[in-house]
Structures are given as C-alpha cells and as structure tokens.
Amino acid sequence: MVPLAVLLKRELTNEKIERPDILHGQASQSKKGEDFTLLKTECQRILGDGITTFSVFALFDGHNGSAAAIYTKENLLNNVLSAVPSDLSRDEWLAALPRALVAGFVKTDKDFQEKAQSSGTTVTFVIIDGWVVTVASVGDSRCFLESAEGSIYSLSADHRLEANAEERERITASGGEVGRMNIVGGAEIGPLRCWPGGLCLSRSIGDMDIGEFIVPVPYVKQVKMSNAGGRLVIASDGVWDALSPERVLSCCRGLPAEIAAKQIVDEALKGKGLRDDTTCIVTDLLPPEKIHPMPPPKKLGKGKFKGMFRRKSSESSSHSDKEYCEVDLVEEIYEEGSAMLAERLDSQYPLRSMFKLFACAVCQVVIKQGEGISLHAGSSRHGRTRPWDGPFLCKSCQMKKDAMEGKRPSADGASRHRSGSDDALPSAAS
C-alpha cells in the first residue's frame, strides 16, 4: 500500500510521468567467464507503487577472477538505493541519485575489500526513469546513446590510463607509479599501467592488491531524452577495442534489441576473433505503444558523434517530463567525474537538506552527535566550507577516503617490479 503522505505529495506535485516502452537484449561471447550483467525492468522507488518504477541495466567486466564482478552485481543496486533518502518525490529522487551512486560504489568497494580477494571489475551502471537516463561508470566498459535522429552521445568515461592524463596525474600524486611494462634490455612495451600491480585502469571496484589510488568513485552523467526515443548500447572493452561507437551503432540500426546485441558482438569478433570476454546490452527507449525496432535515422550513414549536450536552462528546475519544441533534444542535467569524495558527496541546499545529517555519507551508518568526521576535515578550501554542516563520515569510511587520496598507506604497500615476468600482472588488465 502506498503511504498517504506519498499520495498527497504526488497530488501536490502532479506527478504524472510519460514513460517510454523499454525493449532490451544482450549477447556475449566468453573467453574467461568474467563478464556479468544485471537487467531489471520493474524496480520501484516505493515498494508496492507501480507508478514509481524504474529500470536498471548494468555491465560488470571482471579481471583477475570473477569475484569482484559477482559481488558488485549482487550488492551495488541495494547499496545505491540505501543511500537515497526516503519519502522523496520523483524530481527529488532523481536529483539525489548522482550522490547516492557515488556512495553506493564506494561502499560496495569497501565491503568487497573486507573479503580480502584480489580481483577487480569495471562497472557501467544505467538507471532509466521515464525519459531520464543516469549512468555511473568506472573502468573501460562504455555506454553510448543514439537518438532517434542518429546523433551519438557518450554517457560514460574511459578510465584507461592511456586515455586520461588527469587520472595519471592523480595516481602519481597519491603515491602510485604509472609506466609501461619493462622487458629485458629496458625497453618498454604495452599500454600504460599503474604500479604496483600493472592494471591499465585508474578506477574500478576491487583491486585491493593494486593500491587504494585505484578508486571506485564513478563518473556520473544524467540526461533527459526527448520523447522521440533512442537506443543505448552498453558494452565491455571487447567491443570498443574493435569498433568505434559509430560503427557499433550503424551495424545494428533497424534491428530489434536482442538481434542488435548479437550483431554487435559478431561484428566485434570479425577482425581478431575472441581474445577477451565480449558482452553487449542494447536497450531501446520507444514512445509508448510504438513497439518496433529503432528505425534508421533520417540521415543515413555514419551517426553524428556529439560530446556536448544542450545544458539544462536556468529556468528549468524540474526533471519532470514535458513536451519539447525540438524533435530530437538530449538535455544534460548533471555531469561530474572528480575522484575526490569531498567534491562528490557534498551538495548545496536544498539537495543537502534531503540527506540525513548524522548518517555516514558513504555507508549510511548512524553517527552519534560529535563522533562524525566532516567530509571536509583537513580541506584546504578555507572559507568556502562549514565542516559543522556535514556531510559526515564514520571512522572506517574516513580511513577509506584518506587511503584513496594517498594520505595513508594502502592495504598492500608491497612494491612490485615492472618486468615482463611479473606474476602479479592482472590477466585482464583491461
């Protein structure tokens, strides 16, 4: 039964949301058995209330074993939802989601590390509520959106060290080392890796044997699609290493989601065969009662790749669905990729007032007054923060934050050599 307070709030805010019809399919070819997916189309913000449904599509590309990918698949969604305050309207829930995703990723990583297993995983985690799509990602699995008109948008970040100078600087500043593998004679080969350990990524969940500077803090992007619809493709690096986003989306246009996913995987394997686990999820968002494959765009040929979005106007303070004048508009609501928890878990009013003050901003444990540690403790941003306002962390989450920022040694500080015979090198350093 829906609580009366929720019904009254919905009536006051006129929460009538047009929702797209969602069709999805997935395909995979396994080499190591370390890719896992999560597909849930009937999640509810309020249990028992069918109007509050949302969908989750996620891909977990494990390396050095499957333990981290399996654990994250089983626990991440619950950890994210636990970090969202209760009794929120849909607009408030969507506004709170980016912070909750950061908290959920960090808590999942922290809890998994307590199991003392050395595997890790990339995560691309997509939440769809109405026409609002929120994507959180760590690693090099990617998510791209093609609008109904054929424009292509990136909704995730590439956290490979080779592709990200800012992440390389962050890791070295936190005490890590970035370089290529050395072979006999001193020559360097292969992609840039983080040492100790030899991981090619700067962000993941797990990887406790590499160092705490491999952080689980996700890049988050939230966009509002037009009601013309579009297609999402979520895939592991086995796809993106073989095909460009334009090629991925052009090879499956006009095909139903299930067939499209298989077509993308087959296309990725044409060149060099199956060298890594290769997994793809295709999700179509269609106008209601328009159940058929995404049609080819009006302008055939290569899709137009767009890194920039129309940003939300200052007059628009609501996430609620509304009619657009533009036929094919993708509106950016939120984007943030900082690895610093103090920046990601802080928020301005009125968003800050939605979250419990005396609860750890990561693990949600209740903190007794006077025992919480300000998220801004030790911050150099004097005059711009008020530590007594919070957010606060419990002691164990503060230790986790300090380790991620290089303020204390990680759990495994042992040095490893950058040699070609290094047995610690992850088997799928992504």
List keywords for this structure.
single chain; 430 residues; alpha+beta; 2 domains; eight-stranded mixed sheet; 10 helices; disordered N terminus
Structure description:
The protein is α+β, with helices and mostly antiparallel strands and 430 residues long. The chain folds into 2 domains: 17-340, 4-Layer Sandwich (Phosphatase 2c, domain 1), CATH 3.60.40; 343-404, no CATH class. 23% of the residues lie in helices and 26% in strands. The chain contains 10 helices and 18 strands. Strands 2, 3, 4, 5, 10, 11, 15 and 16 form an 8-stranded mixed beta sheet that branches. One of its GO terms (molecular function) is protein serine/threonine phosphatase activity. Its cofactor is Mn(2+); Mg(2+). It comes from Amborella trichopoda.
Topology:
Layout: H1 4-13, E1 21-29, E2 35-44, E3 53-63, H2 67-82, H3 90-113, E4 120-129, E5 132-138, E6 142-147, E7 151-154, H4 165-173, E8 177-182, E9 188-195, E10 205-206, E11 219-225, E12 230-235, H5 237-240, H6 245-250, H7 257-269, E13 278-286, E14 304-306, E15 310-311, E16 330-336, H8 341-345, H9 351-354, E17 373-374, E18 392-393, H10 395-404
Parallel strand pairs: 7-14, 15-16
Antiparallel strand pairs: 1-13, 2-3, 3-4, 4-5, 4-10, 5-11, 6-7, 6-12, 8-9, 11-16, 12-13, 17-18
Helix pairs in contact: 2-3
InterPro entries: PP2C, PPM-type-like_dom_sf, PPM-type_phosphatase-like_dom, Znf_C2H2_type
GO molecular function, one term: metal ion binding
Domain PPM-type phosphatase: 23-285
